[in-house]
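Sanity check

After download, print the first record. It should look like this:
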Amino acid sequence: MKMRLHIALSVLFVLLAGSCSTESIENTNIPIFENAVLVEQELLDIVNDHRNELGYPSLVFSKVAYEYANAHNDYMIVNGSLSHDNFSSRASSISSEVNAEYVAENVAKDYPDAITAFENWLNSPNHRKTIEGEFSHTAVSIKKDAGGKLYFTQLFYR
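Expected structure tokens:
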């Protein structure tokens, strides 16, 4: 009887563990949401103006980083939450594609415009450090969810 209980508990554990496993983002079909292109350009200009005022060079737009920022915004919209989920994978992919030595990311949501997102990032020491960091390239993706709320992802690398 003890042996049967042990086997039954083992089978139950395997079934529960398998049902709770998380699927990788690569295997998930995530819809593509609309970009707020004018807001993206505005935020990129605001960030570069801020950096220039401090004597730092402007960041160069990166198409590679833009693709990953777009995909992350789509992921956040589908999940309905702000996150840095899968950042290690994004950073590793960007590093491989453009030979970057360091990658960083700022995310935000629910801000009505570029300046509000930027000001809130500057009020956060970690986000400010990224904006003012020793980076050479960036991309800003801003997308709208079905309700019109904005999601922001800015990737940086050097």
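If your output differs, re-run the checksum step. Summary of this record's structure: Strands lie at 60-61, 103-109, 137-144, 150-157.
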